[in-house]
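Purpose: get a first structural picture of the assembly so the mutagenesis plan has something to point at.
Setup: two entries, given in the order below. No constraints added.
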Amino acid sequence: MTPAQGGGPAVEDVSGWGRHPVVRGRVERPENLALPEDGEPLVPRGLGRAYGDAALPANPGGLVLESTRADRIRSFDPATGRLHCEAGLSLAEILRIFVPRGWFPPVTPGTKFVTVGACVACDVHGKNHHRDGSFGNFVDRLTLRTAAGRLVECGPDRERELFLATVGGMGLTGLIVDVTLRLRRVESPWIVLETQGVASLDAMLEGLRLSATHWPYTVGWIDCLARGRDVGRGILMRGRHATQVEAGTRRARPALPLRVPFDAPEWLLNPLFVRWFNRLYAWSHGSALKRRIVSYDAFFYPLDAVGQWNRLYGRRGLLQYQCVLPRAAGPRPVAALLERLAGAGAASFLAVIKDCGPASDAYLSFPMEGTTLALDLPNRGAVTEALVHDLNATVIEHGGRVYLAKDAVTRAADFARMMPRIREWRAVRDRWDPGHRFRSALSVRLFGDPA
Amino acid sequence: MKIVLVGATRGMGRALARRLAERGDALFLLGRDETQMDLSARDLEARGAPPPVGQARLDLGEPDGFAAALDAADRALSRMDALVVTGGLFARQEELAADPARLAALLHANFTGTVLLCQQAAERLAGRGGGLICAFGSVAGDRARRSNYLYGASKAGLAVFLDGLDLAYRGRGVRVLCVKPGFVRTSMTEGLPVPPFAGEPDAVARRVVAAMDAGRHQVYAPGIWRVVMLIIRALPRAVLRRVQF
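Result (structure tokens, whole complex):
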């Protein structure tokens, strides 16, 4: 007799953070990650912060294996910062446990509510990409449960092809069971932050470039409604971990538990409201160079302070669009994308802009040397999807690509044109999972998996 | 504190053990699955429990092994001062009703086994000046409902026992805490219909630790379930006959 069991998998509506699309699934949340013995196809899932269909079942009623309860730490070496943990451990937990001991995740996306497994599967990047690259660069070892049920260890120096296909492989090469990564030493939980208003896209790109040499973390916020000469107007931010001396005796204030309690009406995010929000945001930062010390939460995770902020986009949810354009393409296509968005009146609050460093060796890893843009598009159905295809055309023309952790609508043919190493990835995946047991709504859409 | 935990590898037990580890309590694990205890012991060490977090085999269904298990814990901790039992069996009403062997095993572990273990531990602790016993009952033991009275009966019996144990041993320095969780989202309740006021294991763990420190004899978790059960206990029988839950 098993010690305890309820009614089996929970039948739930499953969606990403964008709340669109939605697919009914049978969700299992085991404390020990294992595959069903009958060979049933499934999609691995973490905390559900991918915006689109990356962690949705391939077909209604499909099995979803959520890793969040498989969150044990296997070991931590305080001499080197090497952390071996199960795939369901979240960055929020890592921060809570290890920041007081002087350690920080080597790379973090814009939310801390992500599992380590998902950080690998999406090969996430952060404000330090120009210097440190993406998450996979800090992973020494992965344990995968393959489609056949076997445990396989891989890493940069072992089963390297499987490793390169799994980092950024969207969970489609096998079930990531545990991960060994290297945390970064920090002197304090505080961040020295500099902000500066910039008047144009050229100034923004120049600011990012100049800051990159001295600052580990850089990012820009762009007012998406600005047009013409003002395109790219926004705020440049750069940060670094504060030293003990700089941090002084600061104590973290407990955050107010804010939450969006219900779906906002769709008229809320009208262009006028967004215009004034953006002006207010710009005004609050001013144009002068300012330096202050902020908490790591305020710097890395401003949106995490508002629970379920995705409800602001109403019941139909949002599509997040993130692309990267290669440095060689110059600033023009970036401006073209911003003009296109402003012209569409597709009210996005702010776009995040960031310069990326060299690409990773992982076959499907998103970042490449160049400029990345990320923004929210309220979902208005076919109109919004058409806009995404339109933006994709510009991105493809200039040799760029979109980020699968955000994507929900890119077409298979378009994605194939964005990813030069997609064939290598397919070959490795086919070798380890010939029947495509690991499949998702995304893999049906982009890789032709059976639904 | 030096705490012995039964059932710390999963669910609320796992969350509670982590809370205790984070504040530096010395821990010792008892349970059936050595591999799982091994994994949890390393997790708890990484989270702040002084290493090594030891372990020994204990099956709530096999009382003959209790003394040896408590001996092992006492040796490893050089005398424990608290026992926390979150472990137990669970199955849905239909399954228990259809399978007498399964029902017997559940009643045996949740009631007989847990009572024998706590009684033994209380006697040990009293003999050395005192300590703490904490075990998990359930709101299901507060009032019978047709949808889970078999499981509920095992927990109702346990609650009466713990109540009495507290009365009998508090004078000898042993505090006894009966935790009554409401519906909490764990692997144990996965797939069951989720009622209002469902809780999370971490919040339960925080509340239990506070109750342990405050020396209380009973705590509902999440706290709202105290009110919910006050109402459910007050429902006239005619109402319970009619409703389907």
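Chain B touches chain A at residues 7, 9-11, 14, 22, 32, 36, 39-40, 42-43, 46-47, 87-92, 102, 105, 187-193 (CB under 8 Å).
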